[in-house]
Amino acid sequence: LIRATVNLISDFPEQSKEILIYAVHNNEHSIRRSIATSLPKLYSYDSKLTLHLLDILLIDNDETSCVVATSALGFIIRMDINLFLIRAPKVIEKGNQKAMQILINSSIREYINYDIFDRINLLPKLWILCNETSRSKLVSFMLEIARVNPESFLKISKNISNEDHNSFQELYRWVGMRDMKTQELLQKIKEGK
């Protein structure tokens, strides 16, 4: 039903919109997952509706619906960075580890290219809340930032330290496993200076 509705949205926009809005609130996980899978295609027909559905699915209680919806942020960031900036923090706040991993894998490189100074503090929040698997990828991005802009790397690292010292200790350890010279940049923060 969902795929058919999405396929017919150009011919029956109002009816399709009503069906999708009703369906996104359905108790059946498979229906919401199907909507989440259809978000990229739906965006080309009705971006406003897509964003409305995405906002609901990003905080869905069904982990899979949330994860699939998060993958849509990978194309949203390429369409409009501001739409991404509004929604990415919701994924982090939700705390779904798989969704955060998808966010890191599909969007963070683009985000860093847009804002290497991380003005909305996504990277510290991600680092503090994500698991070991996600940290492995995230530390790679952090090291790229350090190579391109050490000042930004130190600012982000200091924000991590200010938010959660134990998470900073983990960052220090992870950076040291990959690049001892970059780890030296973190020494003053580690010593509390």
Structure explained in plain terms:
81% of the residues lie in helices and 0% in strands. It is an all-alpha fold and 193 residues long. Helix 6 (73-79) runs antiparallel to helix 7 (81-94). The model has no long low-confidence stretch (mean pLDDT 94). The chain is built from 14 helices and no strands.
List its traits.
single chain; 0% strand
Q: Tell me the strand percentage band.
A: under 5%
Residue runs with pLDDT of under 50 for 5 or more positions: none
Compute the number of helices. Answer: 14
The largest pleated sheet is described as: none
What order do the helices and strands follow? HHHHHHHHHHHHHH
Please report the distance between the alpha carbons of the first and last residues.
60 Å
Report the count of strand segments: 0
- Principal-axes geometry comes out as elongated
| SS-based class | mainly alpha
Q: Roughly how much helix do the residues carry, as a percent range?
A: over 70%
Rg value: 19 Å
Average pLDDT over all residues = 94
Summarize the structure.
The protein is mainly α and 193 residues long. The chain has helices spanning 2-7, 13-24, 29-45, 47-57, 63-71, 73-79, 81-94, 97-114, 122-129, 132-148, 150-163, 165-178, 180-185, 187-190.
